[in-house]
Specification:
The protein is of the alpha/beta class. 31% of the residues lie in helices and 16% in strands. The chain has a single domain, classed as Ureohydrolase domain (Arginase, Chain A, 3-Layer(aba) Sandwich). The protein binds manganese (II) ion (2 copies).
Length: 328
């Protein structure tokens, strides 16, 4: 059970447009806060888009998502999960990046995540572009590889860009496999689509036994069937959930750098996360929301709802008897 200190500010007490915006109106806890050791799930901003190969802007997402997430209430409408009542959740602030030095930024993210993990905090990080996921995995999984559920229109398994050994948001999962941070046999990538450079990413996946579910297969089989297979692939061991907002169709989530047409609608985008109930999700992220391409704010608002869905799955993994576990 969570304690009173970790309760979000209710819209019944203070209007949602008032006060200082934190993720879901949770208390903000810097690392030196006296209650920092009591956090079970920490929402943390990664305001960095230095891995972006084309249209930047995701560095602005943590601030936009804090604002949008003031709309989130306490109870999941379908499963009944009340994450803030179930486990201690907090906004841990941002990991300050170096906007002109990628290696420095990756090191900063890894160090802070490793510190949090050492304290038993399960991070729900808010990017930033998808390269942010790599240092998070480095901070979490040096000792043992994790499984992965990825929702994305891209595999992010591409070889190095621009002729060097360059890390970008197009290859974090290739690097993570090469570094032994993810177990390829427990990886599933869902929603893959869009024009391709070549088949280098697919060849890598096949060589390592990574399961790719294209958007064509996703819609032909339906969410329940695809996600049943995803749970089987990932199994019961510790797993990471990574959600790239470009998984969602750009008609509803245009605020992202690399949109691809022909994706899920908002209802489906939330539904796939509910189907992750039962997995042991020990950390997760939402990446690639890009506020400069989101003039209506609608992408950030969907992103905030996705964060709540993810938080509910993470809370259920920590509290198997709470409402929200096994309800699909
Ligand atoms: Mn991605
Ligand atoms: Mn993508």
């Amino acid at each position: 059970m969570a304690d009173d200190f970790f309760q979000p500010v209710s819209g019944m007490d203070l209007p949602r447009f008032a006060g200082i915006a934190t993720f879901m109106r949770l208390p903000h806890l810097p690392d030196d806060h006296s209650r920092a050791g009591d956090v079970a799930i920490g929402l943390i901003g990664l305001p960095w888009d230095g891995g972006t190969s084309n249209r930047p802007g995701a560095r602005h997402a943590p601030r936009a998502l804090r604002d949008a997430s003031t709309m989130i209430r306490a109870r999941h409408p379908v499963t009944g999960m009340r994450p803030f009542a179930t486990v201690n959740c907090a906004d841990l602030g941002d990991i300050g990046p170096n906007p002109v030095d990628a290696a420095d930024t990756l090191a900063r993210i890894e160090t802070r995540i490793a510190t949090l993990a050492g304290r038993g905090v399960r991070p729900l990080s808010v990017g930033g572009d998808h390269l942010c996921t790599l240092p998070v995995l480095r901070g979490l999984a040096r000792a043992r590889p994790l499984g992965l559920v990825l929702f994305d229109s891209h595999t992010d398994l591409f070889p190095a860009y621009f002729g060097g050994a360059t890390l970008t948001h197009g290859n974090p999962f290739r690097a993570a496999v090469d570094e032994g941070l993810l177990d390829p046999a427990r990886m599933v990538m869902i929603g893959i689509r869009g024009t391709m450079y070549d088949r280098a990413d697919r060849d890598f996946a096949e060589a390592h036994g990574i399961r790719i579910i294209t958007i064509e297969e996703f819609f032909a089989r339906g969410i329940a069937d695809v996600m049943a297979e995803a749970r089987e692939v990932v199994g019961t061991g510790p797993a990471y959930l990574s959600y790239d907002i470009d998984f969602v169709d750009p008609s509803v989530a245009p605020g992202t750098g690399t949109p691809e047409w022909g994706g899920p609608d908002a209802f489906q985008a939330m539904g796939v996360i509910r189907e992750c109930a039962g997995l042991n999700i020990v950390a997760a992220d939402l990446v690639e929301v890009s506020p400069p391409f989101d003039p209506s704010g609608g992408t950030a608002w969907l992103g905030a709802s996705l964060l709540f869905e993810i938080l509910c799955v993470m809370a259920a993994a920590l509290a198997p008897t709470a409402p929200g576990q096994g309800l699909r």
